[in-house]
């Protein structure tokens, strides 16, 4: 549907003697304004040196009676509002049923390579809800862009070098000594929680008191390596339980071991982007829009965290990705300009890197904040939430808001089987449709063959709204891919379920009129096709019964 309308409008604009921009569409908020609206006349105003409304009038005249339109009207400063003919909507519904996902999926990426790096939690503790939200966003975005014709690689960056993993090893070492009955001070900034003791007990199980008479300076390498690898194994397991598998894992240590940090520094030096001052080595990030230059190597010769980030993003660029997406916690907002500066210093536009920020999650139970986790010591873990409400429910709720919006996650609502629970409401629509088809088979009605159906029998206002919503999925899919916003799919599925459930309660699908029953079954099948596609993009199951 969208492509038909876009083609007609583009041809009309060409007849004005100019090339049309990308034609955007939106669904009017009120039905009286039509089925579809486009502001295409607005961006043409400057080029044609005329008011948008005047341009819109010309476009409408040039379209004339062409196409599937019942009426075309101009609103406000120059919006073009479109209402479709009923027979056209029916023919498009038939096309959806015959092509299924081929009807609405479009090759928008044209095979372009895109890397999405997400989660990348420091391997110093269990994943918390913020990590889970980032995981849900990253996985759904990967599915969405793959469906949209991109070649996607999902990567996890392991921060396995520096002070934080050293502190993890020291925390485990201190607990190891204490479990063996040796007095040893626990580091003031150490990591707490049961998982530290779990790792220490595992070392005792495997190695006994072998390290009891050593100091951390002697045993540190072993404790750091053992501890962060144990945590990384737990993180990997939790992510797999969440339905998320990465294509690659990049170690920070490996960047140093393969001299990638040194190569990156030499590369920037050869481009004239570095200078020395007060014994330190600085990156001229202000040349590329950052608010101040950044230290790469301190005066004492120690590398900053930014040094390995430079090397990592240089590697991403060298691997030939057409686009790089980083998904970070909202607290990393100030880090964006310096990394974009690196991308530009390496000869690429700043837009080559897209950063999505994930805002925090507040966990509630019946509207009240949940107490801290004993296992994590500071927060409730993602694993604990998945065990209580399930991976699908957790994932869907994470995707009910924009990534950069704060989210309140209420465990009691997440377990309800009601319209208050958004994932239940959507999944239940699919389960209800499956039960309708089972009922049809019991009554001897052929439910899988849609040839010869009179779709004009779908004439109630509820049915027409559902048909229009189904056909609008193409626009939702396209907009979500272009904007890199998988939550648009979530919003759409909730709206579609919100149309289906009242329709189910008001209108019998299986009636005494066999032809009407077949038409309504076809409508239900189209709903099921779209629900399953949307849920698959979000990485969520479409259960047949609930």
Q: How would you name the CATH homologous superfamily of the domain at 422-538?
A: Isoleucyl-tRNA Synthetase, Domain 1
Radius of gyration: 28 Å
Overall number of strands = 14
Give the uncertain stretches in residue-range form. Answer: none
Mean model confidence by pLDDT: 93
β-sheet strand percentage: 5-15%
Ends: how far apart?
A: 33 Å
CATH class of the domain at 422-538: Mainly Alpha
CATH second-level architecture of the domain at 422-538: Orthogonal Bundle
> Per the principal axes of the C-alpha atoms, what is the gross shape?
flat
Secondary structure class reads: alpha/beta
Number of helices: 21
Question: What does the largest sheet look like?
Answer: 5 strands, parallel
CATH topology-level fold name of the domain at 422-538: Isoleucyl-tRNA Synthetase, Domain 1
Helix content: 40-55%
Strand order of the largest sheet: 6-5-4-10-11
Task: Describe the overall structure.
It contains 21 helices and 14 strands. The protein is α/β, with parallel strands linked by helices. Among the domains are: 2-84, Gyrase A, domain 2 (2-Layer Sandwich), CATH 3.30.1360; 163-241, no CATH class; 422-538, Isoleucyl-tRNA Synthetase, Domain 1 (Orthogonal Bundle). The two termini are 33 Å apart. The mean pLDDT is 93.
């Amino acid at each position: 549907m969208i492509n038909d309308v876009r083609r007609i409008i583009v041809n009309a604009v060409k007849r004005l003697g100019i090339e049309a921009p990308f034609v955007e569409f939106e669904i009017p908020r009120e039905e009286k304004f039509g089925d579809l609206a486009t502001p295409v006349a607005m961006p043409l105003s400057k080029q044609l040196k005329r008011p948008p409304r005047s341009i819109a009038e010309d476009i409408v005249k040039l379209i004339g009676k062409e196409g599937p339109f019942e009426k075309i009207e101009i609103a406000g400063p120059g919006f073009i509002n479109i209402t479709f003919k009923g027979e056209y909507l029916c023919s498009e519904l038939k096309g959806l049923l015959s092509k299924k996902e081929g009807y609405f999926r479009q090759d928008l990426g044209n095979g372009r390579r895109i890397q999405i790096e997400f989660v990348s939690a420091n391997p110093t503790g269990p994943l918390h809800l913020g990590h889970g939200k980032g995981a849900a966003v990253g996985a759904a975005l990967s599915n969405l862009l793959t469906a949209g014709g991109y070649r996607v690689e999902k990567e996890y960056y392991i921060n396995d070098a520096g002070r934080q993993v050293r502190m993890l090893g020291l925390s485990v070492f201190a607990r190891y000594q204490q479990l063996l009955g040796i007095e040893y001070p626990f580091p003031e900034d150490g990591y707490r929680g049961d998982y530290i003791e779990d790792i220490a007990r595992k070392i005792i199980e495997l190695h006994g008191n072998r390290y009891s008479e050593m100091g951390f300076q002697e045993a540190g390498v072993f404790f750091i390596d053992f501890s962060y690898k144990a945590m990384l194994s737990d993180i990997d397991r939790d992510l797999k339980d969440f339905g998320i598998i990465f294509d690659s894992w990049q170690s920070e240590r490996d960047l140093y071991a393969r001299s990638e940090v040194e190569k990156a520094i030499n590369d920037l030096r050869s481009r004239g982007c570095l200078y020395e001052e007060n014994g330190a080595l600085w990156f001229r990030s202000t040349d590329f829009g950052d608010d101040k230059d950044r230290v790469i190597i301190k005066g004492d010769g120690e590398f900053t965290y930014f040094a390995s980030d430079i090397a990592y993003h240089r590697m991403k660029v060298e691997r030939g990705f057409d686009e790089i997406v980083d998904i970070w916690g909202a607290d990393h907002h100030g880090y964006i300009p310096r990394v974009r500066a690196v991308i530009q210093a390496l000869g690429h536009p700043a837009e080559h890197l897209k950063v999505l920020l994930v805002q925090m999650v507040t966990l509630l139970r019946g509207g009240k904040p949940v107490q801290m986790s004993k296992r994590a010591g500071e927060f409730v873990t993602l694993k604990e939430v998945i065990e209580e409400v399930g991976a699908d429910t957790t994932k869907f709720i994470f995707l009910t808001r924009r990534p950069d919006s704060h989210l309140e996650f209420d465990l009691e609502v997440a377990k309800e089987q009601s319209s208050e629970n958004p994932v239940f409401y959507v999944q239940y629509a699919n389960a209800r449709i499956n039960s309708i088809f089972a009922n049809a088979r019991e009554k001897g009605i052929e439910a899988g063959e849609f040839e010869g159906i009179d779709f004009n029998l779908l004439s109630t206002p509820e049915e027409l709204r559902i048909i229009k919503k189904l056909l609008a999925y193409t626009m939702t899919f396209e907009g979500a891919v272009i904007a890199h916003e998988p939550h648009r799919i979530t919003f759409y599925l909730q709206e579609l379920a919100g149309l289906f459930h009242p329709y189910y309660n008001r209108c019998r699908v299986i009636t005494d009129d066999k032809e009407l029953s077949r038409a309504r079954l076809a409508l239900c099948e189209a709903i099921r096709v779209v629900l399953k596609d949307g849920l698959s993009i979000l990485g969520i199951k479409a259960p047949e019964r609930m």
